[in-house]
């Protein structure tokens, strides 16, 4: 374990050209909302959920209908702070994640209408929900409020798989609900599936994929189950199984005419750009636990809803942890999300400190068949999956663990 950590740390140092300390999030000293010039992508975090799913690592809390009006008032106040400091979402994207944003009822659609009056009209509004939530009136309200992309957490249509994931639900109703959502007129309907490569069979996954495709959804995101801190002592699925399932998913989606748009996501049809929760280089985050990424820093709002409310009510910015981004780190971050989307650019960003070494690795990847032209192959994407497992999951584990324990944590070394 220690050896693995040392090797991974050394690999990061060599590839990034940065010392370990560069990857440290420290308590943010900022009280003023940072100034923006020009338009920005926005993210809003709505933490409420009706049920807690055993596997979920995100910053969620049980739905409290009494708190919801205050929550949205605060979210609008934070949007006003962003707008007063020059940020506008005009023509850009607005991603609303959680949690399960739709469980908050009309508050969400009212918020959306007011938000656009404050920050401008986004070109895309992407929203997360779950299959349990879908009803005809909800879909109508969301469309009327301007939602263009809907992502529905299904995870599985099989009761035994849902049960083993520790998720409650009524999967027998999902097919019909999703068909209704597919007909509703969103530019993009994404369905999230999850599989546990150690406890389910390829047959279970094949059947889930078939059912998801039959609904008419134009994007499928198929995640391997990541095991985070809550399942202490539980290991990730065995590597051999992960490889087998990963290869199966790629082949199967290709046969059905879907094209990869990221490590886990495949698309066929739909209008506008693909649904994506993570691939923005810079964004302004609103809500408890929301991340913000600017050209020169990366920060998280406090995860604690009350602490977040009290900061915003005082007209202050609610960052808890912050990490400066040098031009090199910012370029590395950009390269990572390019790779995540299956794209290896021919010309690497000149701000990368280790550009020569990275270019050599890129040529080797092309020679070995991990990449064709600028597009990563299935083999290449499997390596990105492993990279994601090593660095991103570890980073989520560290930041999320301390941030859920205390509103304003000490420094976290990533
Ligand atoms: C932020 S969650 C929102 C899900 C939504 N609230 C629901 O209940 O369906 C977005 C997606 O992350 C994926 N996800 C969450 N935890 C995961 C884990 N431990 N491993 C893999 N994927 C996960 C799920 O597919 C989920 O639909």
Description:
By secondary structure, this protein is an alpha/beta fold. The protein has a domain of 226 residues: TIM Barrel (Alpha-Beta Barrel), CATH 3.20.20. The protein is 40% helix and 18% strand. It contains twelve helices and 18 strands. The strands form four sheets. Strands 10-11-9-8-7-6-5-2-12 form a nine-stranded mixed β-sheet, with helices on one face. A five-stranded antiparallel β-sheet has the order 13-14-15-1-18. The longest helix has 28 residues. It starts with a helix and ends with a strand. The mean pLDDT is 92. Bound molecules: S-adenosylmethionine. S-adenosylmethionine (SAM) binds next to strand 5, strand 6, strand 7 and strand 8.
Judging by the overall fold, what is the CATH architecture of the domain at 42-267?
A: Alpha-Beta Barrel
Cα radius of gyration in angstroms: 21 Å
- Secondary structure category: alpha/beta
Q: Give the % helix.
A: 40-55%
Q: What is the CATH T-level topology of the domain at 42-267?
A: TIM Barrel
The H-level CATH homologous superfamily of the domain at 42-267, spelled out, is Aldolase class I
What is the CATH class of the domain at 42-267? Alpha Beta
Number of strands: 18
Bound molecules: S-adenosylmethionine
SSE pattern:
HEEEEHEHEHEHHEHEHEEEEEHEHHEEHE
Strand order of the largest sheet: 10-11-9-8-7-6-5-2-12
Which spans of ≥5 residues are poorly predicted at pLDDT below 50? none
Average of pLDDT: 92
Query: β content, as a range?
Result: 15-25%
Distance from N terminus to C terminus (CA atoms, Å) equals 16 Å
